Amino acid sequence: MANPNQQVVYTKLFINNEFVDAKSGKTFPTINPANCKKIADIAEADKEDVDAAVEAAKKAFARGSEWRNLDASARGRLLYKFADLVERDINILANLESLDNGKPFGDSVFDINCAIDTFRYYAGWADKIHGNTIPADGASLTLTRKEPVGVVGQIIPWNYPILMLAWKWGPAIAAGCTIVLKPAEQTPLTALHCCALAKEAGFPAGVINVVPGYGPTAGQAIAAHPGIHKVAFTGSVDVGKLVMEAAAKSNLKKVSLELGGKSPLVIFDDCNLDEAVEIAHNAIFANHGQNCCAGSRTFVQEGIYEEFVKRSVELAKKRKVGDAFGADVQQGPQVNDMIFNRILKYIESGKNEGAKVEFGGKRWGNQGYFIEPTIFSGVTDGMTIAKEEIFGPVQSILKFKTLEEVIERSNATNYGLASGIVTNNLNTALVFAQAVQAGSVWVNCYDAVVPQAPFGGFKQSGAGRELGEDGLDLYLETKTISIKLPTNNKKFT
């Protein structure tokens, strides 16, 4: 049940199965973006706290430890139990998520259910990670063994706080790693509550450690730490480059990056127009536009362009903006002042560069970080709003003529996270799906992300994949073992 007065219980760092103050004693406020009021003061980790968390994680991963001695199936059972506890506390977690992030309560519930699905998916993988036997030449038995990387660092964003935690914790735990995670400083509340649930589930001390703090301090300390052997980061391209640089300069730790996008959604004139308008609307406005795979370039074939714009405006006018706990609210505030002002600057750049504001284009209300759902028509490829990731509720509608043209324009970007196409022509869909440079291609749908299927990007949208079996890869090392045999399967004489 939605409760805007949800009590915040956990505000400290979580290290070695205990909630502790930062060694410096510092705290930082986490703010409700709907009214700009402080929710709570959170312990602020820096390098010294990250060091302590890594030491706890190293001890938990040491040979002969309780964690290392667990059967793989027991790791799976722990994940299942943890998922059950998340499900038990789903209303508490959804209230915390909506307070901290601003997303509507129903959206928070949806996200947490997706997180539960992810935990249960990877719980099933825990005792199914195995190597192979190899028919090597000569008198030998050769086999491979999959082993956990060790201590892993994880840095997650603020747009899907608990869901991104699930994407990181699930495969790492299934693989047998130990974790030091930094939640986004804007949205630490659900991660800290999950720490309490992990302890309740029975995870041994040091397996899961959470250190809220800022990117240049706590985040940098994780990326550069020599005791961490893999780092996973979700966020912006600029910060992703810093993470990769720190990983390379420290100990060449493994890196997986899920970064930004400027994803094309292509609408052909043979589509069901009302369905296409709704797909495109949800592709950009879901989660207040704060979605790295948002369909932020809506390409519409010229024959239906004007009618598509008209119907898109009609749909946007019906979109209800307001506080996360309001009835039937579909869009809450942007996460903070910096993001709010950046989006408004992008909207002004669209106006100044000649795009037409069909709807919205300004602040909504007089408090909080709300922005009206905004639609631009007449957008061309060279405009700033068509090239840069806005990360807000701004739909840019571009016109195209042919399939070959729109493929070329879709690929004319440094990003390659996701893409979509709406058409009733199977050949058109298949040609586009094979030609577009994107990690996900959604046909007659958008944002069809499931735990079973890998997710990640081409080009500067990232490195590595999350979810699916592929999501385990960067949490594992492959060891080859060769055993000399007395005979090469020859008969003794």
Strand element count:
20
Describe the main β-sheet briefly: 7 strands, mixed
Q: Work out the helicity level.
A: 25-40%
Characterize the overall form: globular
> How much is the average pLDDT?
97
Distance between the ends = 78 Å
Which class do the helix and strand fractions yield? alpha/beta
Report strand order across the widest sheet: 14-15-16-13-12-17-18
| Percent of residues in β-strands | 15-25%
Rounded to an integer, what's the Rg over CA atoms?
24 Å
- Tally the helices: 15
Low-confidence stretches: none
Provide a concise account of the structure shown:
The chain is an alpha/beta fold and 493 residues long.
What does the model show?
- The protein has 493 residues and is α/β, with parallel strands linked by helices.
- It contains 15 helices and 20 strands.
- Strands 14-15-16-13-12-17-18 form a seven-stranded mixed β-sheet, sandwiched between helices. Strands 9-8-7-10-11-19 form a six-stranded mixed β-sheet, sandwiched between helices.
- The termini are far apart.
- The model has no long low-confidence stretch (mean pLDDT 97).
